[in-house]
Amino acid sequence: MTIISYNNQKTNRYRGKNWQGMSCPVSLKPHDALICCDLRNTQLEGLDLSGVEFFGCRLNGTSFRGTTLRGARFIGCFSSDEGPAPEFKDAMIEGISVSGSHLHFSDPRLTDPFWGDDLRVADWDPRHPIPKWPLEVATAATQTLSERNDTRYHAAIALGELDKSVVAPLLGTLLADPEWDVRSIALEVLGNLRHQEFPQGDRTLLEWMFLRLGDDHSIVRQKAVKLVEKISPPDEVLVDAISEIMASSLEEQREGLDSVIQFCQVDEKYGHLLKQLDPVLLPVIHRQMRADSSEENLAGLYAAIDLCELDNRYFHLLEEKTIQSLRSSADVKVSEQACELWAILEEADGLPHLLPGN
């Protein structure tokens, strides 16, 4: 199931947001998408959320009182039976649908006048009109909500051992966990659960997973690089994820660039992606080499050297003036790496074709 219209530029996607306890945290609009967000005890009262897609969101205590939810979809969402139920009093819910979710309601009877005939539930079972997961799955999922990072860590392992792909969207919320070890195990479990395409939002989950190529912890990034080899995601997923990373913080750009080079080095079949990624990778490398920071200069030089070794096209896509300037840098390491890059280009006879630079 594709839950996002990728060609609809009016759609805002909010991923991995922790909006617990907030009142109208952002200016949400109809047909937006909330992906793997923590909405526990969030006040969304009175908003127009028509057509909004809630994918893999935590919903205990979320208030939709008086909210317009016409045509809204809840996909792979979770509210634990041990926590407060989401509140839908006076909400407008014509055409609402729920699939692959476990939702806790105070009155989940088939005759509940709130839902009436407007609720469409996948795999409808008149004995269980409100979606529920098996007890052991719901119990493990509840533990992912714990304030203890070790509990969340072991909950992810438990969900993986149960081998139920229905929990994949919920596991996605752990990819935004503040603890790197929880993000790492969640990524590993998601990789193991994907025997074939995820039944709910395969592309959405894959893109969210591979944004970890720019994670701020090296172990999480390494796990993401290994998953590229294991899963072999579609090219467009990797291109979109890397493009988003390259538009993020300087640190994410640096780490994401390193991750791209790593998976291209490991398997040459990904070399063809480099040309597609040139528009987002090259500006980052040029900016790094022109920066006032030696650390940034080194990151750009290391990336340029690695890319030249991967594909000789890069002999002709670097800036002569910038490299020359770095060769005379006061920082010894920067000077050494710039000289090494220059030597590679000289040996390959790439110097006459370098970009002039600024």
* 3D shape: elongated
Gap between N and C termini = 47 Å
CATH class type of the domain at 1-132? Mainly Beta
In CATH, the homologous superfamily of the domain at 1-132 goes by the name E3 ubiquitin-protein ligase SopA
Average predicted confidence as pLDDT: 86
| Low-pLDDT stretches | 1-9, 107-129
The run of helices and strands is: EEEEEEHHHHHHHHHHHH
Reported by name, the CATH topology of the domain at 1-132 is Pectate Lyase C-like
Major sheet: size, sense and barrel closure? Answer: 6 strands, parallel
Strand content: under 5%
Q: What CATH architecture of the domain at 1-132 do you see?
A: 3 Solenoid
Count of β-strands: 6
Please give the share of residues in helix.
40-55%
Structural class: mainly alpha
Overview of the structural elements:
The chain has 358 residues and is mainly alpha-helical. Among the domains are: 1-132, Pectate Lyase C-like (3 Solenoid); 273-358, no CATH class. Helix content is 43%, strand content 5%. It has 12 helices and 6 strands. It has a 6-stranded parallel beta sheet with strand order 1-2-3-4-5-6. Helix 8 (250-266) packs parallel to helix 10 (294-310) and helix 11 (320-327) packs across helix 12.
What's this, in brief?
The chain has 12 helices and 6 strands.
Provide keyphrases for this structure.
358 residues, mainly alpha, Pectate Lyase C-like, 6-stranded parallel sheet, 6 strands, 5% strand, disordered N terminus
Question: Helices, strands, pairings?
Answer:
Blueprint (H helix, E strand, L loop, with lengths): L12 E3 L17 E3 L17 E3 L17 E3 L21 E3 L20 E2 L13 H9 L5 H14 L5 H6 L6 H14 L8 H9 L7 H14 L3 H12 L3 H17 L6 H18 L3 H17 L9 H8 L4 H16 L11
Parallel strand pairs: 1-2, 2-3, 3-4, 4-5, 5-6
